[in-house]
Design brief:
Elements: H1 3-10, H2 13-28, H3 33-36, H4 40-50, H5 55-68, H6 72-77, H7 80-87, H8 94-108, H9 116-120, H10 127-138, H11 147-156, E1 162-163, H12 166-180, H13 186-199, E2 230-231, E3 237-245, E4 247-248, E5 251-256, E6 268-269, E7 286-292, E8 295-303, H14 308-316, E9 320-324, H15 335-348
The structure holds iron/sulfur cluster.
Iron/sulfur cluster binds next to helix 11.
Length: 349
């Protein structure tokens, strides 16, 4: 048994920790739509949407999603383009495709999955999400362990080890998290831990003075508490991409990513330059930089004016499509590209 859990057990404090956390959560939790109107479907959608997306960013998407796809059946029957369109702007589109597959499998399943093990076999569901679903919707006594939970546990135990990666840290704290979970109310316990990490035990400037579990926290006295947990940083990878801006007669040339591509399948982007021109013009009209996890991507966008022959050749490439500017809202453009296209159209007008 882990030190902290053992110490708390010996002093009978583990129950007190669970009670302090539970009492705080009952009064302090944010009224999020999957809590005020809970259901299995809403847990599944919210958990998948919340991966890699902040809660305040995903809220309007969640509401829109629920209006269009209110349950597993509605989602299972929806066309793939409609599903992607409702995910547009959230990024990491494999989550939307997995959610769509999951809905189809769930509707067809007989019997339905009801425990962590069975949920792990569903598309897009890993250890974290399966534990969340099993504890919140089926009362199974399993712990969710994500970055928030790792941070709280590292600080509670004043653990100064350096982990190689986030995944390593999750593994390192899983046993302790399992030992600390309340078997009487695992769903609320897990949500309370996530809420504590999201609103009190913050990465930067944790609000220790109002923390409901401060009296159990071995790291509380540290001045440099923000440094815990210690996780080695991955080196940043620099990537440069050249893209084409081809606008003619109120149509824009876009590239559609293949349906079987690993990322962004079925979505539109500004075309990569080498599909349009062999040599780039001297200067890009704009350069944009964005970061995705440890990658820093610089995209240089070049204006190209195709001749009529060139235009015919372009039309023969099945991945390139002329899209009427009035129809841009109806297609799924990757999030940053929609922003850039709007910006460049404004500049051109
Ligand atoms: Fe986190 Fe501070 Fe609470 Fe400890 S006392 S768990 S560091 S917020």
């Amino acid at each position: 048994m882990h030190d902290l859990a053992q110490q708390m057990d010996l002093k009978g404090e583990r129950k007190k920790f669970q009670q302090a956390l539970g009492k705080w959560y009952a009064g302090a939790q944010r009224p999020l739509p999957w809590r005020t109107k809970p259901s299995l479907y809403r847990t599944v959608v919210s958990e998948l949407m919340a991966q890699q997306t902040q809660i305040k960013t995903m809220l309007p998407y969640f509401e829109r999603w629920m209006e269009r796809f209110p349950d597993f059946d509605a989602l299972a029957e929806a066309p793939p383009d409609d599903v992607l369109k409702h995910w547009e702007g959230l990024g990491y589109y494999s989550r939307a495709r997995n959610l769509h597959k999951l809905a189809k499998e769930y509707v067809a399943a007989d019997p339905k999955p009801t425990n962590r093990h069975e949920w792990m076999a569903m598309p897009g569901i890993g250890p974290y999400t399966s534990a969340a679903i099993a504890s919140i919707n089926f009362g199974e006594s399993v712990a969710v362990v994500d970055g928030n939970v790792v941070r709280i546990l590292a600080r509670l135990t004043n653990d100064t080890r350096t982990f190689k990666s986030n995944g390593d840290a999750v593994k390192g704290f899983s046993l302790l998290a399992e030992e600390m979970v309340s078997s009487a109310n695992p769903g609320d316990h897990n949500q309370a831990m996530m809420e504590l990490g999201a609103t009190v035990c913050l990465k930067r400037k944790p609000l220790c003075t109002i923390c409901p579990v401060q009296s159990f926290c071995a790291g509380y006295a540290r001045e440099d508490i923000e440094e815990l947990p210690r996780i080695a940083r991955k080196a940043t990878e620099q990537i440069e991409i050249q893209r084409a801006w081809v606008l003619q007669d109120d149509s824009i040339l876009l590239q559609r990513i293949a349906q079987d591509a690993g990322q962004l399948a079925g979505q539109y982007e500004l075309p990569v330059l080498n599909l349009i021109a062999t040599k780039p013009p001297e200067k890009p009209i704009i350069t944009k930089t964005r970061s995705i996890t440890h990658r820093r991507i610089k995209e240089h966008i070049y204006a190209i004016k195709p001749s009529s022959t060139h235009r015919r050749n372009l039309s023969e490439n099945p991945s390139l499509h002329w899209v009427d500017l009035g129809k841009l809202e109806a297609i799924t453009l990757s999030g940053p590209h929609r922003r850039w296209v709007k910006e460049l159209i404004r500049q051109a007008g």
